[in-house]
Every structure is written in structure tokens, then in C-alpha cells.
Amino acid sequence: MGKRIILASGSPRRKELLTQIGVSFEVYKAEGEERVTTNAPEEVVRELSMQKALEVAGKVSGDIYIGADTVVAVDGQILGKPRDEEDAARMLRMLQGRAHEVATGVAVLTPDGREPLSFAETTRVHVFSMTEEEIRTYVSSGEPMDKAGAYGIQGLFAAYVSGIEGDYNNVVGLPVGRLYQELRARGIDLREA
Fold it and tell me: Any idea which residues carry the catalytic annotation?
């Protein structure tokens, strides 16, 4: 019988990415309060991804727990999920016409006594200039409301992305290539788990 892999995230995008690479897993969303001790984007996502993995590992019996968290940062300022449409428009005004970073932290726990795997991947995203009307139209689509930085690169916002430096899947929400390779280097094949 295979190992029970638990994704400690309710993100439909993370679920799609793991499924895309052939991993069989279950989803249990972490719902605890997020606590951070730093403002550095890569450290924030590492802390939050570990908190999610630990929370779910404490509630659900499994063999491999994967936690992840993504933030968008511009000029070192972290942009989380927008509170409302005005907040989404504010974030998009900050991002349009320039580059920003997307950082995703990943934490993997195995209850076999191994040191947890923890890393952060950063991708630089370049955005075309947007008019106020384009920003308002995009916000009114509803797409930005559950996404860090108020956009989804895989959706309507793709029309405004002029390029990326790094892993596209990282911007979507999970650097599955790096996750798979890091675990394989530890002797764990997620597709055979």
C-alpha cells in the first residue's frame, strides 16, 4: 500500500499542479492563525508553509505532509490577498508597468524522523502598463479576490504579463518541479509514494 500524501492547502491551483505531475494525494486545509516573525518575503512563506504542514500533521494521520504559502512582493512590501475590490485595485496599480517578485514557501514533513524539507522559490514577474479601466475591468471579473497580489497569472491577467524570470508554476502557487526533485534527492518519489 502506498504512502498517504496530504496537501495542507485548500488552493485549487496547488491541487491542479500536484495532480498534473501525477501525484496521488488528499487535501486537508490548514485553518490556524498565521504567525510571522519577519518581513522578508522568502522567510515569511517558509514560516507559513511550515505552520500549515505542522497544523495538518497534528490533526490527520498521514505519511507525507506538504504545506505551501505564496506571497507577492513589490519593493520589499508583501501583498497578500486583497480585502476587497478597492484593495485589489490598489495592489494592481502598484504592480502594473514594472516587475515584482512572487515567493512560494514549501514545507514537507515525514513522520519517519527525517529533518523537514523547507525551501522558498522566487520568480520575478514583469507586468505591462495597465490603464485604470483595465484594472477596474480585471477587478470586476472577481478573479483577483482570492489570490496573493490580486492576480492569477494563469487566468485573465495573463494578458498583462510581459515576461517572467524563473518558475511559472511557482507563480501559480507551487514549484512542483523543485518539490519533486528535492524529495527525489532524499529518496522519496511522490509519484510512487
Answer: 69
